[in-house]
Design brief:
With 412 residues, this protein is an alpha/beta fold. The chain has helices spanning 17-21, 59-63, 92-99, 104-109, 114-122, 126-142, 158-175, 198-216, 233-246, 262-268, 282-289, 299-305, 312-317, 338-349, 353-359, 362-366, 393-397, and strands at 4-14, 34-42, 47-52, 64-68, 73-76, 78-80, 145-151, 180-188, 221-226, 249-254, 273-276, 294-297, 322-324, 383-387, 404-409. The protein is 38% helix and 21% strand. Helix 6 (126-142) packs across helix 7. The radius of gyration is 21 Å and the shape is globular. The chain binds N-(iminomethyl)-L-glutamic acid and fe (iii) ion (FE).
Length: 412
């Protein structure tokens, strides 16, 4: 079998080369860098050539295996950089309670919320959790998503959290390279009722388990719900210090209900991303603009909870690297389709098309530390999404329609 692969004659290729050169910041519509009637050649590890079909290099005619895609469009692989997809049970009743007048935080105080899903998750075996997750991942992949981050955090007990992290590791091995999974450790998701404080839970579960899992080398990043009534800045610092010392990347849920200066703290610890950011004030936006930390906005959560949206324009105009992710989880956003979420959010966020596309490809890859993908540019990893459209603009125009015919990777 030939080692090189040529994917030829797409009606359009969205390369995002302009956006890539600007590190995904302050991008303009022309930074989409769309090629018409174009092709791409890849080795196992990288893009070797991308350009117009009429300029296809002679040298690859014989050395590559060719496939043809007339009538289709190619984009950088779609990345969903924030999901909580490993959970048991559902919270349909809480959704209805909210529509009937209850509030997310009130429901949580009354024993609903994350602790409700903890019970549903603890009731399932490792095998059941694996099987449910396989189905969920396959469904997400059917939308055209090729890289998915999965957070633990509904075990909330030493052995169950360990189990969840191991199941994510098993999923990662099961799906690679077709789907790339990132394993984020988020035992610091909520404090179970048997602990008197977040401090006690941090010192008896979150930190010791992190140390144990770090030895097994299966965690890609840590995350924490840095929010009033969950975990405070002292807990976040403790987790980040420990993760940094162990060489593990950092992420946080911050400034969602209040501006607790979580974005600033994440930047101080060179976090890969800090997420939600509905309440982040000017000082947080400035810190983000000056850092490599990605601001991941989760508009699905605002829609699902009926809360206001982040002021995305303020982040974008000041040069923050902005990603959009689904936040797929059973409580605050039971929607697993990041393309739908971004399509809905872009007009509300007043994003241009290059900002929209960068937010679910290049910038969301960076939010997972994947600096070598997210654009179709020579030297980057060969990870793409194919759409059954001849015009890139049709993809987000058709809200919620499934237009992908799969992802492509030549990685082995
Ligand atoms: O990102 N904020 C913390 N975690 C989820 C909500 C989880 C839940 O309600 O079950 C989120 O919104
Ligand atoms: Fe989340």
């Amino acid at each position: 079998m030939k080692r090189l692969k040529a994917f030829r004659n797409f009606d359009q290729i969205l390369t995002l080369e302009g956006s890539y050169k600007k590190d995904g910041r302050k991008v303009q519509p022309e930074d989409m860098s769309i090629l018409h009637k174009a092709s791409v050649v890849c080795s196992e590890n990288e893009v070797l050539w991308v350009g117009l079909e009429k300029d296809f290099p002679q040298e690859y005619e014989k050395t590559a295996e060719h496939s043809y895609f007339k009538g289709k469009a190619l984009t950088p692989e779609i990345v969903d950089s924030h999901t909580h997809l490993i959970f048991g049970g559902n919270r349909a009743d809480e959704y209805s309670m909210r529509l009937n007048g209850a509030d997310y935080q009130e429901i949580a105080k009354a024993g609903g919320g994350i602790l409700n899903t903890m019970k549903g998750t603890q009731a399932l075996s490792s095998e059941e959790l694996f099987n449910i997750s396989v189905d969920r991942i396959n469904r997400i992949h059917s939308y055209g998503v090729g890289t998915i981050e999965i957070k633990s955090g509904y075990g909330l007990e030493y052995s169950k959290e360990m189990e969840l992290t191991k199941v994510i590791d098993k999923l990662k091995k099961h799906f690679y390279p077709k789907i790339q999974i990132k394993n984020t450790y988020m035992a610091a998701h909520a404090v179970p009722k048997d602990y008197t404080s977040s401090k006690e839970f941090m010192s008896s579960v979150v930190i010791p388990l992190l140390e144990e899992l770090s030895d097994k080398n299966i965690i890609d990043a840590v995350d924490i719900f840095h929010e009033q009534n969950y975990f405070d800045s002292k807990d976040t610092k403790l987790l980040f210090e420990k993760a940094k010392a162990l060489g593990i990347d950092r992420k946080s849920h911050a400034d969602e209900f209040f501006d607790n200066k979580g974005a600033i703290l994440a930047c101080k610890y060179d976090a890969l991303s800090t997420d939600h950011l509905l309440r982040t004030e000017q000082d947080g936006i400035e810190a983000l603009a000056q850092s490599s930390t990605v601001a991941t906005l989760l508009p699905g959560t605002g829609f699902f909870l009926g809360k206001p949206q982040a002021n995305a324009r303020r982040f974008l105009d000041q040069g923050v690297k902005v990603a959009i992710a689904s936040d797929y989880n059973p409580g605050s956003c039971h929607c697993d389709n990041v393309i739908l979420v971004a399509s809905l959010a872009a007009p509300a966020y007043k994003m241009n098309m290059a900002e929209l596309w960068s937010s679910i490809t290049l910038n969301s890859a960076h939010a997972l530390g994947l600096k070598n993908q997210g654009a179709i540019v020579q030297g980057l990893k060969p990870r793409f999404t194919i759409f059954n459209v001849s015009n890139i603009n049709s993809i987000t125009y058709n809200w919620g329609r499934q237009l992908s015919s799969g992802t492509i990777t030549t990685e082995v």
